[in-house]
Amino acid sequence: xxxxxxxxxxxKIGRIGLIGxxxxxxxxxxxxxxxxxxxxxxxxxxxxxxxxxxIMGTDNYGRDVFSRIVYGARVSIIVGxxxxxxxxxxxxxxxxxxxxxxxxxxNIIMRIMDILxxxxxxxxxxxxxSVLGPDLKNTIIAIGxxxxxxxxxxxxxxxxSVKSQEYVTSARxxxxxxxxxxxxxxxxxxxxxxxxxxxxxxxxxxxxxASLSFLGLGxxxxxxxxxxxxxxxRKIMELAPWTAIYPAVxxxxxxxSFNLLGDSLRDILDPKxxxxx
Amino acid sequence: MSSALLKVENLKKYFPIKGGVFNKxxxxxxxxxxxxxxxxKKETFSLVGESGCGKSTTGRTILRLYEPTEGSVLFNxxxxxxxxxxQMRKMRKNLQMVFQNxxxxxxxxxxxxxxxxxxxxxxxxxxxKEVDEKVNNMLEKVGLSVKYKERYxxxxxxxxxxxxxxxxxxxxxxxxxxxxEPVSALDVSIQSQIINLLMKLQDELELTYIFISHDLNVVxxxxxxxxxxxxxxxxxxxxxxxxxxNPCHPYTKALLSAVPSxxxxxxxxxxxxxxxxxxxxxxxxxCHFHLRCKYAMEKCKHEVPINKEVSKGHTVACHLx
Amino acid sequence: xxxxxxxxxxxxxxxxxxARYNLVENIDFTVNEKEAFGIVGESGCGKSITAYSIxxxxxxxxLYIKKGSxxxxxxxxxxxxxxxxxxxxxxxxSMIFQEPMTALDPLFTIGEQLKEVMQIHTKLTDKEMDNKxxxxxxxxxxxxxxxxxxxxxxxxSGGMLQRVMIAISMINNxxxxxxxxxxxxxxxxxxxxILDLMNGLKEKFGTSIIMITHDLGVISxxxxxxxxxxxxxxxxxxxxxxxxxxxxxPYTLGLVKSVSSLGQKRKELYTIPGVVPTYDQMGIGCRFYxxxxxxxxxCKNKVPPLKEYSKGxxxxxxxxxxxx
Lengths: 277, 321, 324
What we know:
The complex is a heterotrimer of chains A (277), B (321) and C (324).
Chain A: H1 2-10, H2 12-29, H3 31-34, H4 65-101, H5 103-118, H6 121-132, H7 136-163, H8 166-174, H9 178-214, H10 226-233, H11 242-269
Chain B: E1 4-19, E2 24-40, E3 44-48, H1 55-62, E4 70-75, E5 78-79, H2 85-91, E6 95-98, H3 112-123, H4 128-141, H5 158-170, E7 176-180, H6 188-205, E8 208-213, H7 216-222, E9 225-230, E10 233-239, H8 240-245, H9 250-258, H10 298-302, E11 307-311, E12 314-317
Parallel strand pairs in B: 3-8, 3-9, 6-7, 7-8
Antiparallel strand pairs in B: 1-2, 1-4, 4-5, 9-10, 10-12, 11-12
Helix pairs in contact in B: 3-4, 3-5, 5-6
Chain C: E1 3-15, E2 20-32, E3 36-40, H1 47-54, E4 63-72, E5 75-76, H2 82-88, E6 93-96, H3 100-103, H4 110-121, H5 126-139, H6 145-148, H7 158-170, E7 176-180, H8 188-205, E8 208-213, H9 216-222, E9 225-230, E10 233-239, H10 240-245, H11 250-260, H12 297-301, E11 306-310, E12 313-316, H13 318-323
Parallel strand pairs in C: 3-8, 3-9, 6-7, 7-8
Antiparallel strand pairs in C: 1-2, 1-4, 4-5, 9-10, 10-12, 11-12
């Protein structure tokens, strides 16, 4: 672990990604300290230009854009981490089962994953949210479910390749039980690509959250989310461009940081994965 | 009552070839087709042959790392092919394997101490201290320093890794060890170290080996009995000295003469076989060897030769005999 | 006998971020015309990179020729531009590799691959090339040559592919053929076929061969003279009989002893103790010092010179310096 961070810091791209991700996480953690105002507090100055009092201006309802962006980071990180957590943990279980036992278990799991995969992820998330109803919890569930097939596939493919290594056959020849072979011999050897996948997934999860909120099906107003901020700014873009620019920049920089971190991790942990989606 | 520790009878292993839209079985690769042999306690039976002849598959099928298609494997008189999964798992304590490639037969994320203690914990409940002692003993037996225990496999050279593999296989006190090309991935000067080690351990621990190799010199050195395999069948089987001094099957003769000699300028009359080994998915009819055999007769094309005994314990499957 | 290739004082360096290592050092040997010259040694002894450096196939970076000369028919190869080298490679000097499967392009037929080599180096018409292709395939004893020209590499067996590789390397009648472990990936009966073929080609066409291998048996079957490599040094050069019967260097001696004691039933084999060192573990003295049974004080800190002790028999060992 320590080595990975040292390697990351040596790599220019990795360094930028890691610093970016750390900044976003710190902002999310210390939002109440950093934000000058309550994100839902409405000031009489609506659509105020960026000035000293409101460094990123105010929106159509007179709320401080900077404070909303800071609290929006919180939403993004929470949605990202929890949904990827859900997707990854279910994905790793399903992938291990499918890859290790093969046969009918594999067939059933992978056909379900194929069906899930057949929908564009944003459509699938939309469908789930519209059934469950739009709120933070359901957004997280929807994004998590959408991530499951990605993880299942990655894990399964890795399990299949690790399983063909002689040390797994060797463990079988010694009489090690299946569950121990999975935990001791397979899991540790598929961890690297799994971590890479998780990092890259964080960025797409954050992006899907922003999209859902933009469409009005994610985080509901007045709670701040970068996606819903963009949506609200649509009608006043010409009058108050700052209400669109700052949340957009926040989304771009966050996604970029996670992607750079993911790419660099991929190079460090698993060079052979370089050209895989 | 025979004194054989292991008796393999009529062993077959067919791998299905899947094809078509519905993944139907469209044919079989007959990797092992009727293999019979027995090994006595403390002896070494070698399976020798070229790539694709089914020698490794035979080794793995005996240990049920592949489920056999047919046949029986009697270990101490008991057919282990009848065992259920859990019985077989427990049985593995007595039947161990050493693999060819020391570079991927050891889990790269486990330290040596853990690699060696895993087999013990899998089969028996010992205290940590006892296990530690066993591990230290075993390391010493295979000629490795105890101070290496906290290292990972990739920190060792090929020969040292093979020593670790051997230690891992022997730590549960097995009576039978299947060694699948244990020295062929190693440097020449290291090969002899490992061969010596295997022979020393056999004497010390009263081991029985099934030794799988393509290297006739190594086989000649280490075995009591040898079976020559060609396309899934044992074509000739005899005591080592008998086989090397009096080879009867044309394939055995060609194989023996193909070994490069270490005496330059003493070029012997080499039998150069024409053609390649046919695919086991589509073996020729009759004697599998007839396409490459210069003595092939009409009979060989249609009729499968049966095993005939030419002298005690020396059997050959050839119409010439 | 005329000298065809003369390598003198060749040192190849590996440059990493942390340090520089000499992978091979002060390599000296000569290959004569119409001669099969063997290079034998274990993994990491530098035998392959020495061969690669002859036709400038070193992967640079990280490998660089630090000093020394490679003289082929009076021409200094280390100074050639890559364009001039391309004219020699595949034409006057050609090479075959251990894995024929990966050395051929899976997307082209055997015939197309053979023609490609001719297109680079000759100005024959298409028809003439077609004829030459079949003629060359027959030369390497490929049955059904007319059909095989239209096959793709995956349709052929390993032994067949190695024949095709030899055909490709022989098609322009090279003066020198470098064979890097050409039979290691093949079965014994197929190995016997290929070695037999190579011996025949040498005799028929007068091509010199450099045979790189770890297998002393292959050396004894095919070579006239041998260089033994250990840890990046040439430790002994001699004709093939003397390597086996009058080995001088303790490493050669041990190797021959351990290999030839094989096959005597269950006798303990003679072994060279220790492990093969890697390039970053080399001392400053004789590279064999740690494993040598006859080591002396001088061996630890000083590399012995490669000297001729009897006609055609060179050795790099302090044992013999004392006597003289």
